[in-house]
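User: Continuing from earlier, I have the next pair ready.

Assistant: Great, send them over.

User: Here they are, in order.

Assistant: Folding the first of the pair now:
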Amino acid sequence: AVQIDPQDVSIHSNRSMCWARMKEGNDALRDARSCILLRPDWPKAYYRAGVAYNVLK
């Protein structure tokens, strides 16, 4: 899906959560950072980053 529409923030967000649930913190953080770059005004992007950091701790 990311290959079809790399600017769709919801795809990155959902994939970030999937990575986090699989305990893949680095991948989750990468997608969360993509969300932040695409929509810096979107609070959920920062939430996804927080979840990813929590996995990494």
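And the other member of the pair:
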Amino acid sequence: MESKRSNQSHEEFPMNGGKGKYSYAQNSNHQRLVADITKHIIREAILEMLDLETLLHDSSNVIRIADLGCSVGPNTFFIVQNFIDTVNLKSQSQGHGFDSFEFQVFFNDHVGNDFNTLFKSLPEDKQYYAVAVPGSFHGRLFPESSIHVFNSTYALHWLSRVPKEIVDEDSPAYNKGKIFYIDEDKEVTKAYFAQFERDFESFLNSRA
């Protein structure tokens, strides 16, 4: 369930689109490794916490999944399929048919994300209805109580904006145009940490 709409504005820095040499699609093996390592954690959480009996009786048998920060693939498809396979496995173990549920997947990323490449890359044998949801996940994206499961892999560490103190020449946290900071820059560290706290609170408030 999502709470009130966020009024924050957000900076956009989407991943490189397309499938060329410098695209995210060709340079996201590390992210895929993380998704592969953590897939059993997601599987265990679904098996333990997702109440299929309630969903069968209280809904239209449609399970809605949102992947926040999906980029252009192919990692997002791997993550989504792991979820669907686990739900089907749990459904069968409880004596329900393999096709007891239909799945609707919402692929979310910034407005500038290359959704064309993403949707051209959709698996031909996909078992779900795919939807694009452009916008920042630091704010509200969906109607209340409309999503059953949210996923965000390797995306939450991205801030919604550069902390204003970092670019203010009169601020003790002014970082002099650098795109990095070192341990000695305590004020810079505090500014980034404070921005992360604000962003993460906004992220959670928009989902709960």
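Worth noting for the second one:
Confidence is low (pLDDT under 50) at residues 1-7. The domain at 1-155 is CATH 3.40.50.150 (Rossmann fold).
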